[in-house]
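Course assignment 3, question 2. Fill in each field.
Student: A.L.
Task: Predict the tertiary structure for the chain below.
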Amino acid sequence: MYCSMAGLTEPEGPCQPGYYCSQGSSSSSPVGLSFGDLCQPGYYCSAGTTHPKEMACPAGTWNGQRGAQDATWCLPCSPGFFCSMSGQDAPIGPCAQGEVKISVFHVLLGSTVLKDCDAAALLASIALREQESVFILVPLGLSTPLMDSARLRGARSALQECSVETGDSPLQVVPAGQGSSAQQEQVSQTPMEPQTPALVAHAHLDTSAQLAQVSPSSALWALTLTGMWETGGPCPVSHFCPEGASFPLACLAGTYNNLTRQAACFPCAAGYYCPENTTSYSVNPCPAGFYCPKGTRFATEFPCPRGYFNPDPMTQSLDSCLPCPPGHYCGKENLTAPSGKCDAGLSVPSGECTAGFYCKGGAVLPNPTDDVTGNICPAGTYCTAGSAEPKLCPAGTFSSLPGRRTLSECQPCPSGFYCEGPGLSAPTGECWEGYYCDNQEGPVTDFTLYPCPQGFYCPPGTNRSTQYSCPAGTFGPRQKLKAVEECQSCPPGKYCEFSGLAAPTGDCAEGFWCRIGAWVRNPQDGESGFPCPPGHYCPEGNVLH
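Answer field:
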């Protein structure tokens, strides 16, 4: 959200697509500012985005431009290249050459192997279908040797533990540097050399395009096989797969997924935070000094404000932030304990908030400006001494400057303008044409109550009912006239002697005849009328004979 003007009671609206607006944004499209910027490459920002990495281009796509507005800006990874991670601003690199395919299973948890049953099932199905030897390659550099027989048996028995039917699957566990020369030759075809990063792929993704770079010393198991394999499979944890998905999408920040085969991720539980691609929220407890409502995206998203502290982790709301105790002060955000004792050891308030300012609670100054414990009274409001909240200037008045201290400092709406509601920092606008706004008679909050009277006209900004009168020779028979052109000329046989008439003054005198627009009874100017010509007679109100 953004707030571009002072005196607002609520945000003006969401940040524009292609931008992100963090707390305190004064623009809907900030560029290079502390509170916002264009969306970063590798990400996209729909309307209302608050964090630069809130929405990442999913794995299998990339975006090298700033200011992306939606997921359509994320381009599919080019043929022959791979984009294995979300949030990429370019493809990571070219796919591996040759027939040997490599896949990585994230299944080594501590000293336990192959506890991911989906990975185990996939491993077995590949071995059965290909009828080729499937090698589990144990990378070098592990802290615990994998050569003992119990560990080797565990790798094989994991398939049975997961209730996977292996049949005659030719599964073999081959530690790095071990095995027959034929096996070593096949292993050497893979880019798993210890001195270079390895090109590997998640088993649940299309290995021809969805690849990632990892160190060969990582605690991962890899398999190799000859020939191609089918793409697709069950949606993995920490991802979601809506209907028609061609690859799994990483859970967005603020969500998690600890189950396979899910069409959507779950909102992060209150008391925890969930970065992008989270499997289990329980590993990310909210730290002390912060609070984490449902759907929190990162650990520091919601700090306890100044004047408060929070000693406990896993708290869920602002109510968990405790007010600074008597005699102490809390001088910054995200405190886990008070900053220290007040210099004078205060246990009661020092005094009232200064007039022109308001103090919401936890204030350490009589004139706070941090917008957490208080601030200067904004335009459109006033604050008497000891104010906890600004008071709105009433309808019919406005206040163009901040720091107003009394009701009398709210300015009356000027004549010719109207002030429709409370809390205005400027008049609502000029009085509309056809109406007048005479604030000398009282504050005008609704100009429609003051229509222009008969005999007069009111252009925009009229400040008195009789400010603009229909001139002599014309009259105004109805209300709400907007311009002098709407005043009607006096009809033939009549005269309109004064300005501001609602009807003609009367009939033209006998012995004269009046044309349109006469302003005297006996016109002789030849324009508005004449004396009766020889050979004619002209009774009173004569038009023409």
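Instructor remarks: The first strand starts at residue 19 and ends at 21. The two ends are 77 Å apart (CA to CA).
Grade: pending
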